[in-house]
Amino acid sequence: MRIEPAAEFLPVLDAIEAHLLGKRHAVTLTLAAFFARGHLLLEDIPGVGKTTLAKTFAAVLGLPFGRIQFTSDMLPSDILGISYFDAKEGRFILKKGPIFTPFLLADEINRAMPKTQSALLEAMEERQVTIDGVSYPLPEPFFVIATQNPHEEVGTFPLPLSQLDRFICSFGIGYPDREAERKILQGAAHIPLPEKPLMTKERIESLFVRAASVRLSDAMLDYLQALVAFTRTGGRFVTGLSTRGALALASMTKSWAMIHGRDYAVPDDLQAVAGEVCVHRLRFEEGPTTIERIRHELFTHVPSDT
Question: For position 112, which CATH number holds?
Fold first, then answer.
């Protein structure tokens, strides 16, 4: 059953989709990841709108935007910053790196060396940066969209599963359908970004609270735990969802429910996000791992009335 977003979120979704025609589900998933206080991994070929999604999202929400183009020679200090001694002032001063921004696009993260990848991902998890033994908090809110090209093999360093687990969900934008691409070719998506953001910082903070407060009933928790248990014992996957993965599934379910106008979650909310939450965390024993295949396995073997 398709559930439409609540009216209060339609202006935001419409404004972003105006620059990413025909991708309402991807836009809604991004908004859900943001209000779930997670981070997003986009895996797709170049030129399908990953950077457009990030820039437009930041502009619509009024968040200062930063971008890091990852390369193989990039060092952790290039991301985090450095502490240097200022002889004039007689003290150490922090020169902040580009990670100190509320909205960060980490482009082609799999081109960086593992040590540099780890520096970013640890900062994402801790929401602070430690330089020379001193901790510096990152801005609030702090949201990262990382991109990588799954088809590129030369000169890349794939993220290990332990680091992929730091992202709340992952998906690809994909090609637009014929009608949407026709409009793009006609210039329909080439419109200016909004001059004024559609949400204030206070509004965003209140929605963080609302998303976290969405109720998961005992029946919903039973369903969620049954799905998690199936990934671990069903014999389909190499390893099952971790507890962090289960928490990510719960957070995304609650955020999705809020965007669709409820203060409680239903099975449709969980089913709408489960594939994207699980696809980078699970590997099938045999054959490719796709969002569609994960959905089929989970919802075929674990009915919502479990």
Answer: 3.40.50.300
Structure tokens at 168: 């709340």
- If DSSP codes are grouped into helix, strand and coil, which group holds residue 42? strand
In the sheet where 143-148 sits, what is the strand order?
A: 65-69, 103-107, 143-148, 40-43, 169-171
Using CA of residue 222, residue 223, residue 227, residue 228, what is the dihedral sign? Answer: negative
CA pair distance 280, 275, nearest whole angstrom: 9
In a domain, 202, yes or no: no
Contact 145, 43 (CB under 8 A): no
Residue type, 134: V
CB half-sphere exposure, 79, CA atoms < 13 A: 30
Three-state DSSP state, 143: strand
Neighbouring residues of 174: CB distance < 8 A, sequence distance ≥ 6: 23, 26, 44, 48
* Structural domain harbouring 97: 7-184
Q: Is 91 exposed, middle or buried (0-12, 13-18, 19+ CB in 10 A)?
A: exposed
121, amino acid identity: L
Token pair recorded at residue 164? 């992929």
Q: Which two tokens stand for residue 52?
A: 């457009």
Same domain, 104 and 47: yes
| Contact of 184 with 145, CB cutoff 8 Å | no
Q: How many CB atoms lie within 10 A of CB 87?
A: 7
pTM: 0.93
User: Which pLDDT band holds residue 189 (cuts at 50, 70, 90)?
Assistant: low
H/E stretch holding 104 = strand 103-107
CB 60 within 8 A of CB 15: yes
SS3 171: strand
pLDDT in tens, 143-155: 999 998 765 556 6
Under a CB-based contact definition with an 8 Å cutoff, are residues 267 and 283 in contact? no
Angstrom distance (rounded) from CA 249 to CA 168:
8
Planar angle of CA 267, 272, 278, nearest 5 degrees: 105
